Amino acid sequence: MRSEELDNRVTEQPSNRATEEEKSPTLQSQTSSPNDQRPTTNDQDILNAQRSTLNASKEITANLEELPNVVEAMKRLIPDNAVISLRGDLAAGKTTLVQAIARSLGNESAVTSPTFSLQHAYGGGLYHYDLYRVGFEELAQLGMMEEFEKPGWHLVEWMDDRLKAFLAAAGYNLWQVTITPEGDRRIYRIEPLNA
After folding, report:
1. Which of 35, 76, 138, 156 could connect to 129 by a Cys-Cys bridge, CB 3.0–4.6 Å?
2. Measured distance CA(150)–CA(131) in Å, rounded
3. Pfam families under this entry (predicted)?
């Protein structure tokens, strides 16, 4: 929100404001006077929420050796229980990122894309899905939607828009990591989808 818009919102006071302030001394100490240009408590909450959303997005450029830095950034930004859409073209490095996450959790077993099994569970609350061949309806018919209830990170390759909409409406912590190749490096954009 631009500061001029915020200034306009702050100076427009409700008509029953004086009555509310007379009734509640706590409200009076938390709100601005009609001539004060500072944001009210509600406006400040809105600004803080906007800032946290902006701060929640991060873009990192990394090569394979720097992939642990991407994983650490994800751990700082993304809650412990979240569904994470991994977005990128074929061979962008989606499964390679999952391998790095599994290694960071102490899992040294082979991490492969679950193209035909749809899901691999690696322990430590790490789940990996490949939905390249499966749409939202088929996933629901297979009873896979309940899998997202398990605590941990659910990393989903090829998540379609209908599944994103369903998960967001159901209140899941929904994030996206977009991977864009740039020579021998990758750009990783980490962002909340339902903040």
Report:
1. 156
2. 18
3. TsaE
Calculate the average pLDDT of the chain: 77
Sequence-distant (6+) residues with CB within 8 A of 144 are 118, 119, 129
122 φ/ψ angles, rounded to the nearest 5 degrees: -105, 0
Cβ atoms of 158 and 151 within 8 Å: the answer is no
Tell me the whole-structure pTM to 2 decimals.
0.70
Instruction: Please determine, for residue 130, whether its predicted confidence score (pLDDT) is greater than 60.
Output: yes
Q: Per the CATH hierarchy, to which homologous superfamily does domain 58-192 belong?
A: P-loop containing nucleotide triphosphate hydrolases (3.40.50.300)
pLDDT at 135: 85
For range 60-83, the mean pLDDT: 96
Pairing of strands 153-157, 82-87: parallel
Instruction: Give the Cα separation of 93 and 22 in Å (integer).
Output: 61
36: confidence class by pLDDT, cuts 50, 70, 90: very low
**Boundaries of every domain in the chain:** 3-53, 58-192
Give the whole-angstrom CA distance, residue 65 versus residue 45.
40
153/95 Cα distance (integer angstroms): 14
Give the C-alpha distances (Å, rounded to integers) separating 82 from 44, 86, 176: 27, 12, 10
